[in-house]
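Figure 2 data, in text form.
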Amino acid sequence: MNLFLELRRHGKLAEKRHPMYEKSKFGKFWIYVSVVLWVGYLMFFGTMFGFLDGGSREIYHDINAGLIFFLALDFLIRLPFQKTPSQEMKPYLLLPIKRSRLIDFLLIRSGMDGFNLMWLCFFIPFAIISISRFYGVMGVVTYCIGIWLLMVLNNYWYLLCRTLIDDRIWWAALPLGVYGAIAAGLFIPEESILFDLSTSYGEGFIQGNPLTFLGTLVAIAAMWLIDRSVMSRLVYKEMNRTEDTTVQVKSISEYRFLDRYGQTGEYMRLELKMMLRNKICRKSLYSCIAVVLMFTLIISFSDVYEGGMKDFLILYNYVLFGILFAGNLMGYEGNYIDGLMSRKESIYALMRAKYILYSLVLLIPTILMIPAMVTGKTTVAICLAWLLFIPGGVYACMFQLAVYNNKTIDLNTQLSARKNVGTSLQYLITGVAFFVPMVLQFTFDALWGPDVTPWILMGIGIVGILLSPLWLKNIYRRFMQRRYKNLEGFRDSRQK
């Protein structure tokens, strides 16, 4: 217990002493505001579902039958928001402390994370309204404890998948296979036994069945041991990684077709190598493609999302790439920013190369959206509108971060590194880039109709693309005015 408290204190002190701590306070404020709003939404829906009529049976039976869907949704929500437990372990590995005890601390901290309590904001008001009438206060308490245990179990399951995927991207087949098998078991048979099992499981929590709680605790313990073994092996592997100079590379793509574009082509080559050869960047790209493909298939072959939610997901497929690449603009270059600054106009050529390459990357979601166009779930016009509007409008906003971002993002460290905390401007500009296009679409739809909206967005995008040399030069001049301040920030935030 003393070790747990001491390491927790060290973690808080390290965050406060980080050079970016003061700059992230504004961003943390908006995170807290978003959390409050999200809690309010969950409580509202929990209350609303509690008053629904379940027909021939009580509404809590239907909710219990859908616990599998709550767990799957919880897993998806964790993907963009919850990282794997991160703690700088190098200093502690030099001390007479067992590595297994450090891993145990990470797992305990993950199990006690407030993220696991999020769904209680839905289930507590729901249980008070629908369950207390039949089982009293005790039924509500045992049910909520059971839901919390399920979320802790789901947390460790997510942690296992995310840790394995961070090591090898092909491990993404594990959660896809599991959830694919569950979906097949739910929807292929006319009467799935899985719904009945889920209903009985939730009923066991309500009734305080010891076997139900014991089974859940055993599953948590088993997942704990698996996570402990996997994390211990992978963290130790990362801490002791060595460069193998004996490997013979059979072929290396030099992207020679970019030679004709001069210095801009050289920086496009550098960016391509970083995206496709660096392990972390490559996994981020693959994850982004996987998310876009998943949403595209949902839009194309199901009626789950219609109306405004469908429009939001289509936009999300395009904006996601911009947030992934441009959100941390110049962050990776902070590792070698001194070399870039030694050459005249190199920063402008770099930003121009990034802009061209990031714009071309948007062809990926456009191609992936073809099934949705073929099935009539979206139109070619709106996809072309976002293909043009994102580079012309959203990137013009996102690239402003190049002036103010001065935090180096390490290219190698994964499990043993701390999470990157964004600055206030990163949160603000990213939020504007994400929500303003949606507001514009809804506004144009209301004023001129959905048939005219794509053409207006295309026009705005084309104007922004044609003016890109002007606003890129403006960004470059402002960056150079702040170059010494940015250099100081990049150097201070590098991994020592």
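Caption note: Confidence is low (pLDDT under 50) at residues 243-250, 415-421.
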